[in-house]
């Protein structure tokens, strides 16, 4: 059904709901369909996920730098005693720091 302005409408419970229709080009129709159709949007996300997975996979080719540090406080210093020989090995409190450069040869997991 059409009203006096030429708009299409559908009667709903005796009231009229105006539904305007505009003419779209094929290019506009395809654009709207790709923006609004859920399966096409999922496909776009799948493509982005694949690109990120490729970036993650390629990151295994790069070395990883690891910094570690710590502080330890013990009641007594540490040492080794063998018979009458006693060697002092660590103070009661000490710090340690390490820097590693790691190269992964297998997939992380």
Provide a descriptive summary of the structure in words.
With 109 residues, the chain is an alpha+beta fold. Helix content is 30%, strand content 38%. It has two helices and six strands, in the order ββααββββ. The protein has helices at 26-36, 38-59, and strands at 8-12, 15-19, 64-73, 78-82, 85-90, 93-102. Strands 1-2 form a two-stranded antiparallel sheet. The protein has a two-stranded antiparallel ribbon with strand order 3-6. The two termini are 63 Å apart.
SSE layout:
Blueprint: E1 8-12, E2 15-19, H1 26-36, H2 38-59, E3 64-73, E4 78-82, E5 85-90, E6 93-102
Low-confidence stretches: none
The number of helices is 2
Apparent shape: rod-shaped
Over the alpha carbons, how many angstroms does the gyration radius reach? 36 Å
Largest sheet geometry: 2 strands, antiparallel
Trace the largest sheet across and list its strands.
Answer: 1-2
Q: Give, in order, the helices and strands.
A: EEHHEEEE
Mean pLDDT equals: 76
Alpha-beta classification: alpha+beta
Q: How many strand elements?
A: 6
